[in-house]
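User: I'm new to structure prediction. If I give you an amino acid sequence, what do you actually give back? Let's try with this one:
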Amino acid sequence: MPKEDALRLSATISEVRERIRSCSACFTIAVDELCSICADPRRDATVVCVVEDPRDIVALERTREYTGRYHVLGGALSPLEGVRPEHLRIAQLEERVERDQVREVILCTNPTVEGDATAMYLARQLKRFEVRVTRLASGLPVGGDLEYADELTLGRALEGRREVEP
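Assistant: Good question. You get back a string of structure tokens that encode the predicted 3D arrangement of the chain. For your 166 residues, that looks like this:
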């Protein structure tokens, strides 16, 4: 790579590193205090879709089926890897549910053992709030990640979500 191109790339990486932050509401990637979704007054703040990673938001937004807001956990529970509830943004989710009078929490964790365990844990934790807790319907491959699912599969999974019984 020519030196000028390498210097330009380096400057761009530095600029991105300085400008990118976490959204103060949902913890996805943002340039401002709030991401574009949380700053959009047309989005329903009483419906929150919980995902493991910001990339999952991109996959769900491609469906054009969801009009609520998001909450990024920052991973999934995994005792074998030492990821416990306090390592995820669960406390922030609970605060948000109470503060924003959330009516529904959609658990969109990946259909893996860790994702399912996280969803069940969240369903139990959220039971103390008067909130509807749902999970994406079947149609997503077990062991797969949301970011690799096609729009049609994700759209149908959103439409067919169901109550989660802890």
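You can read the tokens as a compact description of the fold. Here is one thing that stands out. The first strand starts at residue 21 and ends at 22.
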